[in-house]
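Troubleshooting entry. The earlier prediction with glycinamide ribonucleotide gave an output that would not parse, so I re-checked the input for stray whitespace and re-submitted. Clean input:
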Amino acid sequence: MKRLAIAVLISGRGTNLQALIDACADPDFPASIACVISNRPDAHGLQRARNANIPTRVVNHKEYETREAFEEALDEAVREFDVGLVCLAGFMRILTPAFVNRWRDRMINIHPSLLPAFRGLHTHERVIEAGVRITGCTVHYVTPEMDDGPIIIQAAVPVREDDSAEELAERVLMMEHKIYPEAVRLVALGKVRVAGTKVATEDAVFADNNLINPVAE
Ligand code: GAR
């Protein structure tokens, strides 16, 4: 089986990266991580990659005068590895349309809400503030608008009456770790594809798949 080579872009602790590393450790998983790239030299996720013998690169945004120059270097770093998919996993730089379009339909992201609700930062605080009963997480293809783009998979997580943002974040994160590898698997197997503003799935991809809209206990 030819595995899909992926690049994982991170900015921080890298627990979603770890979920992908763990999934890829299974020889039957249809993707493998070719490189991990961080915009922050101190990102803990870099250590996770090194522990798994995955090549790492740092493209420090602070060393570039413009966003374009930073993205040029980022693009070069990704292209050094022959990857078919870029996975943003807690990568906290906004990407310009130029970069996004270069990787159009070949770049996915995970976001800790049920998009299109609660785009942007401080998601869990805003979820609690809004009093919604159900939140969750989303893996989607990246389009030029932030936290937007065709949705591959989502998981639902109930909000408890007395939840703090931290407690909620932790339960959502557990579901993130399930759906991100699943999304990569579906993309790698060619079972999902972008069709306009949505993702089209092969018939019955999700029918026998208990990860579609799973509800966390
Ligand atoms: C995750 O919760 C991810 O969904 C979020 O950052 C966290 C990264 O954690 N991403 C975004 O908010 C993107 N808009 P991790 O470094 O442990 O994977």
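This one parsed fine. The mean pLDDT is 94.
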